[in-house]
User: What shape does this take?
Amino acid sequence: MRSFQSSPTPVKDRQYFADIFIESAEVIPIHARAVSMFVEKWMTPDPQTVDPEVSVSFVALEMNRRKFRHFPVAELTGNGKRLVGIVSKYDIARGFPADLNPFSIEVSEDSVPRPVSSVMSKRVITITPSCPIEDAAKILRSHRIGALPVLRDNRLVGIITESDVFEAFIGMTAAKSGGLRILVESGVDFNPIPAVLDLSREHRVEILSLMSFHENRLKGKDLSVFRFARRLPAGFLQEIAKLGFRIVSVRD
Assistant: This one.
């Protein structure tokens, strides 16, 4: 029996949290809406799922065809999808005979007829749409897993993967927006952010994102990264240096 499922678009979750993006860094996107810091912004909504009774080889074929590394396993109910497990490429590989590559052209839908529920992970770590994206990153890293199903009111509404978290980091740091990236070193008691914000307003320079790293505090130094929307006016960097900050690098 084949079973491939999708679900309606979820209603926005209004619950709100706040935290720091990565343990050693504070990220402050200038123009990003608050929702950008949460899982709902970056997850894949209405994820494709498989029924627990489909065959292991059917899931292998779908993973190969869709280039997926994970599938939530869910049952369709009157209130939406009820998550019963998650299956990874590793789980599928364990379910195949040692002499058969589960993602080779030799595989057919009947190669391994037993249900995917026999190889899936039943104890699934999940999060909610309103979970801060940095919490999702920490969960993925600490548990050494590649994906987290997203539940609202015990219904599956999304999935977020390592790749989604990378994309969130790129988005919140405006790395795809071009412009100019400035790395500034400062003393731990003299944060450059207020001064650079003042200079940017004075010179009408748009800041796309800024970050402060505190991992060098044993050396008495902090690092801050500023991404500006365009090239800086003459004398801008010199003014930062005159305030007592060291310009470490300037790059497009």
